Each structure stands twice: as C-alpha cells, then as structure tokens.
Amino acid sequence: MMSFALCPVLPQQSFSSRRRLLCAFSAVLLAGCTSLSPQQSKIVSGRFSARLKNAEKIETASGRFRLTMSQGQDELELLTPLYGILGRVVVTKTGAILERGSQKPLQAASAEELMQESFGFSLPVRMLKSWLEGKADDAYASRAASQDAFSQAGWTVEVKRRRADGMPAVLALSQGERLTLTLAMDDPD
C-alpha cells in the first residue's frame, strides 16, 4: 500500500521518496492528455502500481486513480485503495499544479517540467496519449517488439490485456530496470 504525506501512520522519513513517485505517476498520466475537442470530456479510472529503482533502494506505490480530461484542463486524483484522496494534479494550458492536502502546492510550467523538477526524470509526454491507446506515436521513431509491445524514446510500452473494444485494459510502461508503471483501467461506464 502506498504511504503518502496525507497518511499519518508511517514515519515522516518515508514520505519524501514516495511522494516523488506519486508525483511521477500523476504527471505521467496527465502529461499527454490535453487534446480533446471543446464538447468532449473523458474520464478514465482504475488502479496503478509504480516501481522505482535507484542506487539505494526500490520504492513502490499503488492505489487507484481517476483521470478527467476536458478541454483546457485535465485533473488526476490519486486515491487510496478505499478511495481516500491522496493528492490531485491539475494541468491547464498555463501550467501544472500538484495539491496534497494541507501541504504547499507544487507548480511548474508543464506536467513534464513538474516531473523533471520533482524527481529528476521525465517521460516523453508528447507520446503518452498514443501510448494510453496501446500504440506508438506515429510522429516519432519506434520499434515494434510484438503486436502489443513497442519501444519508443527509451521506454518500452506493452499492452498486457485488452478490453472487448480493443482498448488496453492493462498497460505496462518501463524505462529499463529503473522505472515501471502498470495501469489497470476500469471498464468504461
């Protein structure tokens, strides 16, 4: 289970690295999801797990997410397995903000910059919208590994399972051994 600064049961020393992992997950989901027409709004929800390996240790985080994409603003709520709110990331055309209860919000000009400033790495956000659909972004070089897996910009993207409509049900994103994100999307309403 994920520990986070809003969860008072774990020692304070464990919050910093897990908070960075939570921020990373938030920015990853939001970064490439801002191109809907004015009349559209889309909600994607499900479960996530993240694993970050650094020189000192392996960090993990898991929980639920609810991503609301609309014209001009995207919002990601990260939730405990029982739907308590851990944090909220809002991305607009003017920047990205991470809100975490009573803590001071983190801000950056974009979700990609928020990732880089908060935890020292960044996902190629311009490709993420295609990745969430289980396909490589056609505007950039990629290498197919199989029908459901490809490599692009140093990342491996694999559709582990598809829904009946062909969209990914479980998606794995990895950057070598260092970072792995697994998203299990709920069925659409």
Structural class: alpha+beta
Spans with pLDDT under 50 lasting ≥5 residues? 1-15, 30-38
- How far apart are the first and last residues' alpha carbons, in Å? 27 Å
Please name the fourth-level CATH homologous superfamily: Lipoprotein localisation LolA/LolB/LppX
Q: Give the percentage of residues in beta strands.
A: 35-45%
- Secondary-structure element order, N to C: HEEEEEEHHEEEEE
Average pLDDT confidence is: 77
Highest CATH level, the class: Mainly Beta
Largest sheet: 11 strands, antiparallel
Q: Using only CA atoms, what is the Rg?
A: 16 Å
Could you say what the CATH topology is called?
Answer: outer membrane lipoprotein receptor (LolB), chain A
Q: What count of helical segments does DSSP give?
A: 3
Number of domains as seen in the coordinates: 1
- How many DSSP E strands? 11
The CATH level-2 architecture is identified as Clam
Q: How would you explain this protein's 3D organization?
A:
The chain is an alpha+beta fold. It is built from 3 helices and 11 strands; from the N terminus they run αββββββααβββββ. An 11-stranded antiparallel sheet has the order 6-5-4-3-2-1-11-10-9-8-7, covered by helices on one side. Helix 1 packs antiparallel against helix 2. The two termini are 27 Å apart.
Show the helix and strand layout.
Layout: H1 15-31, E1 41-53, E2 58-70, E3 73-79, E4 85-92, E5 95-99, E6 106-108, H2 111-119, H3 128-132, E7 143-146, E8 149-152, E9 155-162, E10 168-175, E11 179-185
Antiparallel strand pairs: 1-2, 1-11, 2-3, 3-4, 4-5, 5-6, 7-8, 8-9, 9-10, 10-11
